[in-house]
Amino acid sequence: MKIGVIGGGQLGRMLALAGTPLGMNFAFLDPAPDACAAALGEHLRADYGDQDHLRQLADEVDLVTFEFESVPAETVAFLSQFVPVYPSAEALRIARDRWFEKSMFKDLGIPTPAFADIQSQADLDAAVVTIGLPAVLKTRTLGYDGKGQKVLRTPADVADTFAELGSVACLLEGFVPFTGEVSLIAVRGRDGETRFYPLVHNTHDNGILRLSIASTDHPLQALAEDYAGRVLKKLDYVGVLAFEYFEVDGGLKANEIAPRVHNSGHWTTEGAECSQFENHLRAVAGLPLGSTAKIGESAMLNFIGEVPAVDKVIAIDDCHLHHYGKAFKVGRKVGHATLRCVDRATLDQQIKKVEALIKT
């Protein structure tokens, strides 16, 4: 089976690493000349709206998926005329637009922060009066890793902010006094079978995920699965979906979904019976889903800007290095380490050892 992937970054690379043992081959469509997934399959270098190359991709593969939500929904809709594409164009259309996404949560009875659609500075000024400060203004599409957003704490922060974010459609969200940020990785097959991984506690710095720790018997696991299940059913979703939540007053409020394999699920490669990457491929290919059971105690630490010396990373017991083969650049995710330990105390010790490498 040959899988087409829209996007050739590290997520596409890790999909190919998971699919190769299953006898799968890969083709990546990505405009970047140095797409890091290209080493693991055919690279069609073209823009995501290039219909000639999209048609070429469709002719070469058995099905198509995508590795990030910045892909235009129109691209997926075009491809779906010629080849199966999972997740669907409709799922991508909603997930990539924060207004559509939050509106869907509201319709499904999933709690969210207060939010408002912002099409102008006047809209922003009016919404701030209603929602209050502090609040966060985010572009409706294309924002990620802290980009395309601004925290508004005082009236001075509000002035001219719509123009500052590019005068594009935005979403204003009320600030949530959360006690933690958690995410749930879910997978749903073509036949509707659904499985969930353990909730993960996430730590961010400047909007970029730094550390994820898989939980054991989290008290909000069932609630998180309920909310995610509503979304999966509503979208008739196929593949892996990540759902990020805020822990608030003993419950959960929805932050956002990602219609793809996700950074906070990287721990599953060594820390679960079947990784998120393999399970995504199983789902889109119509294969039986794998076990999402956790093995030991696991965590993932991102390497931002540069990867520490390889020998020092792999010298740490229980540590597994994933180097993306990307050029080092400030603020860029260029690799990660996963840890799988026998108990939580050991895991905490090993996390500190990896963090010490990052700091130096």
Helix-residue proportion: 25-40%
CATH architecture title of the largest domain: 2-Layer Sandwich
Query: Regarding CATH, which class of the largest domain?
Result: Alpha Beta
Strand-pairing-aware structural class: alpha+beta
Tally of individual helices:
13
Give the topology, please.
Blueprint: E1 2-6, H1 10-19, E2 25-29, E3 42-44, H2 51-60, E4 63-66, H3 73-79, H4 89-95, H5 98-107, E5 115-118, H6 121-131, E6 135-139, E7 149-152, H7 155-158, H8 161-164, E8 170-174, E9 180-188, E10 194-196, E11 200-205, E12 208-214, H9 221-235, E13 239-248, E14 251-258, H10 268-271, H11 276-284, E15 297-304, H12 310-314, E16 319-323, E17 333-341, H13 344-359
Helix pairs in contact: 1-11, 3-4
Concise synopsis of the structure shown:
The chain has helices spanning 10-19, 51-60, 73-79, 89-95, 98-107, 121-131, 155-158, 161-164, 221-235, 268-271, 276-284, 310-314, 344-359; strands spanning 2-6, 25-29, 42-44, 63-66, 115-118, 135-139, 149-152, 170-174, 180-188, 194-196, 200-205, 208-214, 239-248, 251-258, 297-304, 319-323, 333-341.
